[in-house]
């Protein structure tokens, strides 16, 4: 990962701030008791983005090339696709 800073913070710090922000967004959605297919898929999308960020920055997979980067992506895409299909079919 890069050691360059932007506004005095390393990229991993910015990712952490983004993860906390996305967590608060999903918390707010839950507290407001929002529902429906669109909201459910939005929250699922946030979860998949957060999973990718954790894999890339905090598991160290962002700097890797090739096959080693795929397991986390596949692990996110397959369940995410199945859950999305289940939500759409249940509608």
Explained architecture:
With 91 residues, this protein is mostly helical. It has one domain. The protein has helices at residues 11-31, 37-58, 70-90. Helix 1 (11-31) packs antiparallel against helix 2 (37-58) and helix 2 runs antiparallel to helix 3 (70-90). The chain crosses the membrane at residues 12-30, 36-58, 70-90.
What's the layout of helices and strands?
Elements: H1 11-31, H2 37-58, H3 70-90
Question: What's the overall geometry?
Answer: flat
Calculate the terminal CA-CA distance, rounded to whole Å. Answer: 42 Å
**Sheet of most strands:** none
Number of helices: 3
How many domains? 1
Please tally the β strands and state the result. Answer: 0
Helix content: over 70%
Strand content: under 5%
- Going by helix content, strand content and strand pairing, the class is mainly alpha
Summarize model confidence as the mean pLDDT. 89
CA-based gyration radius: 16 Å
Q: N-to-C SSE series?
A: HHH
Identify low-pLDDT runs. Answer: none
Subcellular location: Cell membrane
Transmembrane segments: 12-30, 36-58, 70-90
InterPro entries: Cyt_c_oxidase_su4_prok
Keywords: Cell membrane, Membrane, Transmembrane, Transmembrane helix
């Amino acid at each position: 990962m890069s050691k360059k800073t932007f506004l005095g913070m390393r990229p991993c710090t910015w990712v952490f701030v983004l993860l906390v922000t996305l967590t608060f967004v999903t918390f707010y959605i839950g507290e407001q008791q929002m529902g429906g297919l669109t909201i459910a898929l939005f929250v699922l999308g946030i979860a998949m983005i957060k999973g990718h960020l954790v894999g890339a920055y905090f598991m160290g997979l962002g700097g890797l090339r090739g096959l080693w980067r795929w397991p986390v992506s596949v692990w996110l895409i397959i369940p995410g696709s199945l859950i999305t299909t289940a939500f759409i079919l249940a509608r």
